[in-house]
Amino acid sequence: MPSRVLNARTGGEVSVAGSPLATFESLTQAAVIAVMGVAIVVSNLLIIAAFLNFKGLSNEVINYYLLSLAVADLLCGLFVVPLSVYPAITGRWMFGDLMCRLVGYVEVTLWSVSVYTFMWISVDRYLAVRKPLRYETVSATVQTRTRSQCWMVFTWISAAMLCCPPLLGYKKEANFDKETLICMLDWGTTYAYTATLVILVLGPSVISIVYNYFYIFSMKRKLNSGAPIHDKEYATALAENLANPSHWMSFILVTAFWLSWAPYTGVRLYEYFTDQELKIPMLHFGVVWLGILNSFWKIVILISFSPQFRLALRILCLTACCRTKGRLQAELIGMDNDD
């Protein structure tokens, strides 16, 4: 039986199956990957188009972060997912070592961008709850649209720089996994690099996300319990702010992201500490592509929990059909978001 992780050398083809003929299982996997790729691309194109088409969404800083997430997921659907369809059918990686390393680099970079962006979203929601009376003032000095855009540019640049060592030759071997059908970095052989990413990406992001949402829901629980708040103006502003569905929506987005990658993390940690590879059929394929599928769930969550996005999506559809964008926005902007 061939090794599960195979080396992809420049200019060569690496066989990952005993026969070049596609089996029913390989065709099924290719179909699943192709459908996922189309779903990810279409859903994130809709999100981006809705945000850019409806100018009313530019009033909230959080929407710029959501736009950044959609761009990251769109790039995943365009440059990562499609490259696994043909290898799933033929059982071979034919794009060479450089492309394999590039795919691994793009995956980690986009994943880091998502983690950082969720951190900024949690910070924005924390500011909204921590200073409800001064949130717009705070936003005018800290979280303006221009500054939020600068934070996103900084996030993309820093993620690209932190994740570039494999692309530049550090640990040159690129690994193609014949079970997951995707090129991935072998974290088990790059301990120093892995520890650096954990400290610089996961550490501050996870701590910030946990603390900020803990504070938000603690204040929500305090308000619902009827605990006395002596400043009535503050209490009113806090209640109005906590009623904003963006708090729950952003929390569900973060939760869906971590839950999607939890099975993969659990499997890798189990195999690392026990030094035993799990032989369950389709397990590795399932946990990796479940994590990648989180790039699609965003549109489902936005439609379910964001009245503002539903309005923007409706305007986008009507604009595409009627080509009367100015008139439609003027008519719909005064409508209830839940209509």
UniProtKB/TrEMBL annotation:
Membrane-related topology note: Multi-pass membrane protein
Keyword Transferase among UniProt keywords: no
Subcellular localization(s) per the UniProt record: Cell membrane
Pfam families attached to this UniProt entry: 7tm_1 (PF00001)
Chain ranges passing through the membrane: 30-52, 64-89, 109-129, 150-170, 190-214, 248-270, 282-305
UniProt keyword annotations, A-Z: Cell membrane, Membrane, Receptor, Transmembrane, Transmembrane helix
Name this polypeptide is given: G-protein coupled receptors family 1 profile domain-containing protein
Organism: Euphydryas editha (Edith's checkerspot)
